[in-house]
């Protein structure tokens, strides 16, 4: 059996991808491939597309598309089930993907749990911890560890004011279910967390926070928060959806207890996410979803459950998507995440420099490019971001407008919404210049500046 590999293709594309050229990404031009549209070659109203919305979802390299297609064409079967050869091939492809993804973030395969997306991964932790409070749920677990996992009245959960709703609403609901109290770390006017006044106390049982703000691009001081959390014995949950696509991420170095990210932002398919967790914690937690595949022994009146990660993967899994994500991680590894980070830093700095030349633009968050990753959000005072977005779209520039699933952060910054440009390995300086040129239409149209 052979698996589609990104290594050779990624090596060929390394120079282009890290400099913003798009080798390795589909170029399905209408003229030469039967009218199939290429989102990076053909934008709205027949104009070339400048795609600056990778923070919402990334475009996919050809090797990722080929890997999914190869699985369906040659190895498609239900994994961990049939005894026939095709099922064995499917299972091998699925578990090989788990190994690749684990290696990408410095984790053993047994600590990688596949989920639907990053939101699902965070909810898995929140609901599994909710279930830990049920009678008998932690029988056989070391008493000291069981005490850490039981969260209820009198305990506190700490989040931050810059969280995506996916790492806020699950903890609001968790506190409602368990009786714990929600606290939060405020954000200052510069777009940084106010860690000096973080409400992490002896009552804190869990701290959930983002690695990189999806709005501001702020790079959070993970080590400082982990140090405060460890001092009181609190669990830590890191939302890495906006960092894994842009930075070298190593779970051992970060020191957190759980980490979540999503495939579609890291050049991979939609419908696949990843939860990493320390194995002793995964092994102690009760399941989030029950059914087939996650069981050890089933009787009519009771069941026992498989060891992690299978315990948290009920039902037939998203195998083709896992294979595609494994290849996406291999593709980025072949480029080199240090080079990806340097490319991103250059794009951020160039964007900040160009926007600083326009006094009618107000950038939100840190102005130091070394404090930002992957995105720049801004406002044009007197013009709604949706109007800014329409002007840009009319020029073939795709950006995100609104509150970006971060309402509390926008309220803290005293703006109703913002316009965000966000980048990936295929983004170029020339595209930033095209965006700024299109943005220059806004003052004339709306009479500002």
From TrEMBL:
EC class name: transferase
Region annotated Disordered, chain positions: 1-54
Compositionally biased region (Basic and acidic residues): 20-33
EC number of the protein: 2.8.1.7
Domain of life of the native organism: Bacteria
Keywords per UniProt: Pyridoxal phosphate, Transferase
InterPro entries per record: Aminotrans_V_dom (IPR000192), Aminotrans_V_PyrdxlP_BS (IPR020578), Cys_dSase_SufS (IPR010970), PyrdxlP-dep_Trfase (IPR015424), PyrdxlP-dep_Trfase_major (IPR015421), PyrdxlP-dep_Trfase_small (IPR015422)
Domain Aminotransferase class V span(s) in chain numbering: 50-435
Position of the signal peptide: none
Ranges of Low complexity composition bias in the record: 1-18
Cofactor: pyridoxal 5'-phosphate
Reaction(s) the record says it catalyses: (sulfur carrier)-H + L-cysteine = (sulfur carrier)-SH + L-alanine
Family, per entry: Belongs to the class-V pyridoxal-phosphate-dependent aminotransferase family. Csd subfamily.
Role of this protein: Catalyzes the removal of elemental sulfur and selenium atoms from L-cysteine, L-cystine, L-selenocysteine, and L-selenocystine to produce L-alanine.
Name of the protein this chain belongs to: Cysteine desulfurase
Organism: Mobilicoccus caccae
